């Protein structure tokens, strides 16, 4: 909300020496956010001049200029190419406009002035003359976008002495402060509301511009008005109040006063002619949107009703809009003539031919107006105020104020006998404020007197406190005051936020991250520390991607389809993290980043076959669901476990002096799996398997203690090419929630033995189809507690072995907690493991 200070001073005592920054500081103290300070970006000397004479001179370029002699007032020094006449300066000025006459008073920017742009003015030679200044247009002065020629002061009804400072005369020395008004404080979208808040902050005297005698406000009768609302929203009729006044014999060609144009411009409103300017001016002043109709274009009376299916209206912006049955309309006998509270219709708009005006001021339902504005993507200054709630007592005041201004500045006559009004009794529910509630909520020991004074200051009626507390009736302009909590907030705001202590509460013991949250953080931190980059992605994908990556076989599985998807081409929730990682990899490769090591942790959505989800009705937002309702809502959602996935492509080690590039391969994906296992505190086994999206022979299933938790492998070349990734791509994906569940209670640290380890290797010949993980498990089982670690170091197939056999070499490390092992003890443990492998797989020691 932009607030010109000259306008603000009309309703609250703002000292002359107060700067815009001081005003902003005062408004910040009562809860507003400062945005900016707006000024007319121009500086003097800019004065009133009078055109004494001019000569029209055609030019070779086809343009005709005027060489003017302009009196700019008392002499301030000899001009260029002019002669002094008495004690006035006569300046020679070249002007291209032709809409003025000899004797006209105009605005002259003399050398040294700076106009908006910035556009400095200097004496310069042009068209064979030295132009000693510039005769300015309204647009050049920043008074609007119209540029029909230079600004003639007679058009504005101004007759000031020559040489008068035009900046002050036109209100161009005014300044506006800009504040951010939160949605619950719509009353502050007006000069009236901001002036009241400034008064609250500083104690300055406030004069309410809405204080008028009721006898002055009641319009005459005779104009038919009706409200027919068959589809109320939330049980509330769309229009609770409708006031119509008539002003006759207006002259739409009358100039808008310069001070009004300046104020509207500073407030961010473009001047559109005297009739529309007045309605906008009153809206900004009182916060009550106003609409004016050309009375002679109306057919019959006005009816406020809902739209019928398929009905249309052409709004003031020239667009034909198809209406929704929930839209509230202003209609006459011809049909819709306005979207109530949003925008008027084109058929009855005020124009240059308007002679009689019907002024409308109404109170519309906030929800109805907000929905209409959003439905038609038609935000307006009017809907912005209506959807926040306007003062229900203001339509009478605003309609009379518009009529008065049209009489004063548009030459009209108020028809006091013709008009109309429909209104309901305004009832504001009372609120009980318990005696110690404010102190307990805010944390400040306010006295009873301070609480009462704060509530009365903002306009509340406060009855004397009893055992229940104060009985408070909020003012009509504060629809946001609905309960004891909002009243307490007002006391804190008025008494000053600086009184509220900033003390952090002591957190209760035993709180903090859950074991699962700690585990997920450990895994993510470990992967990042290992050099992978976390890349969160949207959880939306296609059914084809879900089928490919969401199951081992690639067969169709049930997926959750969104009813209102952000992207119509990806309307399903993901069953796997890989589609998102592939998109991220594709985006990076397309931008020249070809060496990638990515990971993501996030939820996937795994609906069970045959179960229908999302059928439970959502309860009303204003009512907290009970436990039974929450249980039903939870049951209507599909399982959403959290997964972890990695993707590597390109080079693991870049080419550099003395080092050839090393491409990422399956071993790097396995290293990432081991990193996850170490951070989670589990041992993850890998066994060869097959998966629809993975390369045969380069895919493995991951398991923890015999429970499958994920997979690892290299993507099929066709899958990589479909994602525009032309190199080798290796991936891994695990059910992170399941991994952490199987990890159980995590041992933070283990005791380190002070005795040395004994290391031995063993090579076993086994059938080629026996997984290495199964052989390793047999060795671990047989070796017993002395075996500290085991890893596969070689898988040999070739000369010296049968065609259907392979040689697996394992590195074993033995250690005892209480002594130094002998070589014989280590050998016995190793042979015990070999014996188990021999029993299970017919394994033989390789010669």
From TrEMBL:
Binds 2 magnesium ions per tetramer. SMART domains: B3_4, B5, FDX-ACB. It comes from the Bacteria. It is found in: Cytoplasm. Its cofactor is Mg(2+). Residues 40-167 form the TRNA-binding domain. One of its GO terms (molecular function) is phenylalanine-tRNA ligase activity. Residues 753-846 form the FDX-ACB domain. Mg(2+) binds at residues 480, 489-490. It catalyses: tRNA(Phe) + L-phenylalanine + ATP = L-phenylalanyl-tRNA(Phe) + AMP + diphosphate + H(+). It is an enzyme of class 6 (ligase). Its EC number is 6.1.1.20. Residues 426-502 form the B5 domain. Keywords: Aminoacyl-tRNA synthetase, ATP-binding, Cytoplasm, Ligase, Magnesium, Metal-binding, Nucleotide-binding, Protein biosynthesis, RNA-binding, tRNA-binding. It holds the Pfam family B3_4. Tetramer of two alpha and two beta subunits. Belongs to the phenylalanyl-tRNA synthetase beta subunit family. Type 1 subfamily. NCBIfam families: pheT_bact. This is Phenylalanine--tRNA ligase beta subunit.
């Amino acid at each position: 909300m932009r607030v010109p200070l000259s306008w603000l001073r009309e309703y609250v005592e703002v000292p002359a020496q107060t700067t815009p920054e001081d005003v902003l500081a005062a408004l910040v103290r009562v809860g507003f956010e400062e945005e900016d300070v707006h000024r007319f970006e121009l500086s003097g000397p800019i004065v009133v001049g009078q055109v004494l004479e001019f000569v029209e001179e055609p030019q070779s370029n086809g343009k005709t200029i005027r060489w003017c002699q302009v009196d700019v007032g008392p002499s301030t020094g000899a001009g260029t190419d002019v002669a002094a006449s008495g004690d006035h300066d006569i300046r020679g000025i070249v002007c291209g406009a032709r809409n003025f006459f000899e004797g006209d008073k105009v605005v002259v920017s003399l050398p040294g002035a700076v106009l908006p742009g910035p556009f400095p003015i200097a004496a310069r030679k042009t068209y064979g003359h030295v132009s000693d200044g510039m005769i300015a247009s309204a647009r050049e002065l920043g008074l609007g976008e119209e540029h029909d020629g230079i600004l003639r002061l007679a058009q504005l009804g101004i007759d000031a002495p020559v040489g008068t400072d035009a900046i002050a005369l036109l209100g161009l020395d005014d300044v506006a402060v800009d504040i951010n008004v939160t949605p619950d404080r719509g009353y502050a979208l007006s000069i009236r509301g901001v002036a009241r808040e400034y008064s609250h902050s500083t104690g300055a005297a406030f004069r309410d511009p809405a204080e008028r005698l009721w006898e002055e406000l009641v319009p005459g009768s005779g104009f038919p008005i009706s409200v027919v609302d068959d589809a109320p929203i939330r049980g509330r009729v769309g229009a609770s109040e409708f006031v119509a006044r008539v002003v006759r014999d207006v002259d739409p060609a009358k100039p808008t006063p310069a001070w009004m144009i300046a104020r509207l411009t500073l407030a961010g409103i473009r001047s559109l002619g005297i009739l529309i300017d007045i309605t906008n001016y009153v809206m900004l002043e009182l916060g009550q949107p106003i609409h004016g109709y050309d009375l002679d274009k109306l057919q019959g009376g006005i009816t406020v009703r809902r739209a019928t299916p398929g009905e249309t209206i052409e709004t003031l912006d020239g667009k034909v809009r198809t209406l929704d049955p929930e839209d509230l309309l202003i209609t006459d006998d011809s049909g819709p003539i306005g979207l109530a509270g949003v925008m008027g219709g084109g058929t009855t708009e005020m124009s240059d031919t308007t002679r009689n005006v019907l002024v409308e001021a109404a109170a519309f339902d906030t929800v109805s107006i907000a929905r209409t504005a959003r439905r038609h993507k038609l935000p307006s200054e009017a809907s912005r105020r209506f959807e926040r709630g306007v003062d229900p007592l203001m339509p009478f005041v605003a309609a009379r104020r518009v009529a008065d201004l049209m009489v004063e500045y548009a030459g009209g006559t108020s028809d006091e006998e013709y008009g109309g009004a429909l209104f309901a009794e305004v009832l504001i529910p009372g609120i009980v404020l318990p005696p110690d509630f404010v102190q307990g909520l805010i944390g400040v020991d306010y006295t009873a007197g301070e609480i009462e004074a704060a509530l009365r200051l903002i306009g509340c009626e406060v009855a004397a406190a009893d055992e229940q507390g104060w009985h408070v009736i909020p003012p009509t302009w504060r629809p946001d005051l609905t309960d004891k909590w909002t009243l307490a907030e007002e006391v804190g705001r008025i008494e000053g936020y600086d009184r509220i202590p900033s003390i952090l509460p002591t957190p209760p013991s035993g709180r903090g991250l859950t074991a699962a949250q700690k585990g997920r953080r450990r895994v993510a931190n470990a992967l990042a520390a290992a050099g992978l980059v976390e890349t969160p992605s949207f959880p939306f994908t296609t059914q084809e991607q879900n089928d490919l990556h969401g199951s081992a076989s690639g067969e169709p599985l049930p997926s959750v389809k969104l009813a209102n998807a952000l992207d119509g081409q990806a309307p399903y929730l993901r069953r796997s993290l890989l589609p998102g990682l592939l998109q991220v990899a594709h985006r990076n490769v397309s931008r020249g980043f070809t060496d990638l090591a990515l990971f993501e942790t996030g939820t996937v959505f795994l609906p069970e076959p045959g179960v229908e989800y999302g059928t439970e009705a959502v309860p009303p937002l204003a009512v907290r669901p009970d436990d039974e309702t929450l249980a039903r809502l939870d049951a209507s959602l599909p399982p959403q476990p959290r997964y972890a996935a990695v993707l590597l492509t390109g080079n693991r080690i870049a080419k550099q002096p003395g080092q050839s590039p090393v491409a990422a391969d399956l071993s790097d994906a396995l290293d990432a799996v081991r990193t996850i296992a170490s951070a989670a505190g589990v041992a993850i086994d890998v066994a060869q398997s097959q998966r629809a999206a993975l390369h045969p022979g380069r895919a493995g299933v991951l398991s923890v203690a015999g429970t499958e938790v994920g997979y690892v492998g290299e993507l099929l070349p066709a899958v990589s090419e479909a994602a525009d990734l032309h190199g080798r791509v290796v991936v891994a994906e695990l059910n992170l929630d399941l991994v952490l569940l199987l990890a159980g209670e995590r041992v933070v640290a283990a005791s380190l033995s002070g005795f040395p380890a004994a290391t031995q290797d063993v090579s076993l010949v086994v059938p080629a189809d026996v997984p290495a993980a199964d052989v390793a498990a047999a060795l671990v089982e047989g070796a017993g507690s002395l075996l500290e670690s085991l890893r596969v170091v070689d898988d040999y197939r070739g000369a010296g072995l049968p065609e259907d056999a392979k040689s697996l070499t394992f590195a074993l490390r033995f250690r005892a907690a209480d002594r130094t092992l002998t070589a014989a003890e280590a050998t016995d443990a190793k042979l015990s493991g070999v014996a188990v492998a021999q029993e299970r797989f017919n394994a033989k020691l390789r010669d």
